[in-house]
Specification:
It is an enzyme of class 5 (isomerase). Homotetramer. Keywords: Carbohydrate metabolism, Cytoplasm, Isomerase, Magnesium, Metal-binding, Xylose metabolism. Belongs to the xylose isomerase family. With 448 residues, this protein is α/β, with parallel strands linked by helices. The protein folds into two domains: 346 residues, Divalent-metal-dependent TIM barrel enzymes (TIM Barrel, Alpha-Beta Barrel); 67 residues, no CATH class. It is built from 17 helices and twelve strands. The protein has an eight-stranded parallel barrel, surrounded by four helices. A two-stranded antiparallel sheet has the order 1-2. It has a two-stranded antiparallel ribbon with strand order 7-9. Strand 11, helix 11 and strand 12 form a beta-alpha-beta unit. The longest helix has 28 residues. It starts with 31 loop residues before the first strand and ends with a helix. Bound molecules: D-xylulose and cobalt (II) ion. D-xylulose binds next to loops.
């Protein structure tokens, strides 16, 4: 398996020795849970940008990361070498997918033609490694936010030259996705929003953004790239207001511009929090619209108001996400769990990069085990069915009857005294529900 990384293949160690690191306590890829292998439910992916490019900077400090390829100085040599390091990392971790932006894997040239040539050289190598290892591309995407030319946006830039460049960059990125057999193609519009409404033609910018998405999908159809197309909502950061604010806003945008049949959503935990939602909320909104596509797994920090992209370890949250996934039957037709997460800058060694992924994979494997038990018992299903049961009888049935009018309900309700109305409601004993979920977490994991 190679010795580029100073770590052996990560084994399953069980949870008897809870302090043992560099081993999985819950994740067993071939173990069948709720009718499918864990690896099939979870479809974990490593994010190239965080795991192999990021130096663990924060707004107040430069990078702390120590990586085994730090001695390579030439940018193209480094890009090519990183592919080898990346694939050994995936294999040692036991992950079957990865994700990348075009600019994560190869340096930019002065012109797009030069950048494309650099990218193609690295993609040649990625293709070889995919063939040799069977590791697949969950999704690729275009970096349309890092370079200074995107200072005021890409597809929503007020400058036509920048729109054109973005469209041209997208074209090649789609060609790369087709070549590497990407299962999904993601759009995250980091700068597709505004800083200040006074100088912004919001309608024009959104029309341009919609046109960009439409041309992307049309070109994919033209070249036979049949990936699932995904938009990744985020409310802000780096822009003050991003057009793909959250799942509900993005669904409305897609419907407004007739894109809703061609695009689904890629939901991210920390983005949900920045929009004032839970991760579960975003997934539920997407599910209810039939638009759950894929998941970017990470978590925010209650005490920090920006996108910290922590590796997910909160079992309550991973249980809620996996509960939704089990209810849906899959993450999405071709979706997976991409760790859009980075180790803290204080966990800077190469072993920590493994430890961080193990933590995230184990937290989701544990969430899957717990959620599967909850589904088996139909705990939530029964609770919800019971809560809404009054719509199956009496006046409740009229709600679903198209012939009923306001007068129907007036006739029923006009003379009912307050005491009877209160008697028609019930406590939801929410504290018990929450502690029951805690009990599920403790009990379902105790025997593993
Ligand atoms: C940024 C973010 C991106 C997208 C891909 O917050 O989530 O990394 O996932 O561009
Ligand atoms: Co993301």
């Amino acid at each position: 398996m190679g010795d580029l990384w100073n770590v052996e293949k990560i084994p399953f160690v069980g949870n008897e020795d809870v302090t043992q690191d560099l081993g999985f306590h819950y994740y067993q890829p071939d173990k069948v849970v709720a009718g499918k292998k864990m690896s099939e439910w979870l479809r974990f992916a490593v994010a190239y940008w965080h795991s192999f490019d990021a130096r663990l900077v924060d707004p107040f400090g430069s990078g702390t990361a120590i990586r085994p390829y730090d001695h390579i100085t030439d940018p193209m040599d480094l890009a090519l070498a990183k592919v080898e390091y990346a694939f050994e990392f995936y294999q040692k971790l036991g992950v079957e997918y990865f994700c990348f932006h075009d600019r994560d894997v190869a340096p930019e040239g002065d012109t797009l033609r030069e950048s494309n040539a650099n990218l193609d050289k690295v993609v040649d190598r990625i293709e070889e490694y995919q063939k040799d290892t069977g590791i697949k591309l969950l999704w690729n995407t275009c970096n349309l936010f890092n370079n200074p030319r995107f200072l005021a946006g890409a597809a929503s830039s007020p400058f036509a030259e920048i729109f054109s460049y973005s469209a041209a960059q997208l074209k090649h990125s789609l060609e790369v996705g087709k070549r590497l057999g990407a299962e999904n193609y993601v759009f995250w519009g980091g700068r597709e929003g505004y800083e200040n409404l006074w100088n912004t033609d919001m309608k024009k910018e959104q029309e341009h953004l919609a046109r960009f998405f439409r041309m992307g999908k049309d070109y994919a159809n033209e070249i036979g790239f049949d990936a699932q197309f995904l938009i990744e909502p985020k409310p802000k950061e780096p822009t003050t207001h991003q057009y793909d604010f959250d799942a509900a806003t993005t669904i409305a945008f897609l419907q407004t511009y007739g894109l809703d049949k061609d695009f689904k959503l890629n939901l991210e935990g920390n983005h949900a929090n920045l929009a004032g939602h839970t991760f579960q909320h975003e997934i539920r909104v997407a599910r209810d619209a039939g638009m759950l596509g894929s998941i970017d797994a990470n978590q925010g920090d209650k005490l920090i108001g920006w996108d910290v992209d922590q590796f997910p370890v909160d079992l309550y949250e991973t249980t809620s996400v996996m509960w939704e996934v089990l209810a849906e039957g899959s993450i999405g037709p071709r979706g997976g769990l991409n760790f859009d997460s980075k180790p803290r800058r204080t966990s800077f060694t190469e072993e920590d990069l493994f430890r961080a992924h193990i933590a995230g994979m184990d937290a989701f494997a544990a969430g899957l085990i717990v959620a599967a038990k909850m589904h088996e018992d139909k705990y939530i299903e029964n609770l919800v069915a019971d809560r809404y049961s009054s719509f199956g009888e009496g006046i409740g049935k009229e709600v679903g009857n198209e012939k009923a009018t306001l007068a129907t309900f007036e006739e029923h309700s006009l003379d009912i005294p307050q005491s009877e109305l209160i008697a028609a409601t019930r406590s939801d004993h929410m504290e018990t529900v929450k502690v029951t979920i805690n009990n599920y977490i403790v009990n379902a994991l105790a025997s593993k």
